[in-house]
Design brief:
The complex is a heterodimer of chains A (about 180) and B (about 120).
Chain A: H1 3-29, E1 45-51, H2 58-68, H3 70-77, E2 81-83, H4 94-100, E3 106-114, E4 119-122, E5 134-137, H5 142-174
Antiparallel strand pairs in A: 1-3, 2-3, 4-5
Helix pairs in contact in A: 1-5, 2-3
Chain B: H1 8-32, E1 42-43, H2 46-55, E2 68-69, H3 84-116
Antiparallel strand pairs in B: 1-2
The chains are: A alpha+beta (about 180), B mainly alpha (about 120).
């Protein structure tokens, strides 16, 4: 066990939280986007995190396999949300991440797209308006996005201060050589 | 009697530092997974693990630190029970533990060094 391994764990969290912040930024930037590549309004994206490697004991693995973990959660969500194949940051292969990621860290399991129905606003002058004069806008609530962004910022800050702590520990263990 | 540079205390301190960094890794992992759905906070009993390591001459620490889920934490609706406050405090505690181990170890080595250089005086 070395201290640099601990820094790898914190670094994986910094990476994951940054992806989360990027996705939120992309959501807010596209809050009024009515036309994407396939002609439909933009759909809100969000990230799902997963644990990487770790010191998972047999009991923990069993517990997560029995539906305590992500498996059960995915089933609950599957009605409204579908995996995003080649979206914004999608297509992250979770098994590849798990194979070479830091043990005990966190990884972005994928970026998923929220399939909720678009908001309809009456604006007959808009080139994207339908025959009835309504335009479909993405269902993005700035409040939700801000809360998500704040969560990402706080987590990032916490893990960054963990890195600071680990750096202090590494440099203090180097002090042994100076005695 | 064999001449040795390491003392029983410095051996124990080595195990203490190993266990502290092992615990630090779990804390960092808990912090990293603060937003992972279904993740459970991990930890081990430091005192028990240290006692086991002291009594074990082979020095393999793996068996002494049985990693388990930490009880008594409130789960959020997504099944995650990581508390930022707990992990922050753990991190601060482990930092001080590590610092303590390093300082005592430095003291040990400077004792050995002064014994080596005693004849210079």
């Amino acid at each position: 066990m070395n201290l640099f391994g601990v820094m790898d764990v914190s670094a994986s969290a910094l990476r994951a939280e940054r992806v989360r912040a990027e996705v939120v930024a992309s959501n807010m930037a596209n809050a009024e986007t009515t036309r994407t590549a396939d002609g439909t309004p933009y759909q809100r994206h969000h990230v799902v995190f997963e644990e990487v490697g770790g010191n998972g004991s047999f009991q923990q693995t069993l517990a997560s396999q029995m539906g305590d973990g992500l498996g059960g959660l995915n089933n609950g969500f599957s009605s409204g949300i579908q995996p995003l194949g080649s979206g914004l940051i999608g297509g992250l292969n979770s098994s590849a991440v798990a194979a070479n990621g830091a043990p005990g860290g966190v990884a972005v399991a994928g970026v998923i797209s929220d399939n909720s129905a678009p908001l309809r606003r009456y604006d007959p002058g808009n080139p994207d308006a339908g025959k009835d004069g309504y335009v479909a806008y993405p269902d993005i609530n700035p409040l939700t996005e801000m809360v998500d962004l704040m969560g990402a910022t706080r987590s990032y800050g916490m893990n960054a201060s963990a890195v600071q702590a680990e750096k202090n520990m590494v440099s203090s263990s180097l002090d042994i050589l100076k005695s | 009697m064999a001449m040795q540079v390491t003392t029983p205390l410095s051996d124990a301190l080595g195990k203490y530092l190993d266990l502290t960094s092992e615990q630090m890794k779990l804390t960092a992992g808990n912090m990293a997974n603060v937003d992972t759905p279904g993740y459970r906070t991990k930890g081990f009993n430091f005192e028990q693990a240290f006692l086991g390591a002291l009594n074990d001459a082979t020095g393999s620490l793996g068996a002494q630190a049985p990693v388990a889920n930490v009880d008594g934490l409130v789960s959020r609706p997504d099944g995650n029970n990581v508390s930022m406050d707990r992990e922050g405090m753990q991190m601060a505690k482990e930092q001080l533990q590590f610092r303590f181990g390093v300082e005592v170890l430095k003291d040990q080595y400077s004792n050995v060094m002064s014994a080596i250089h005693a004849e210079d005086k």
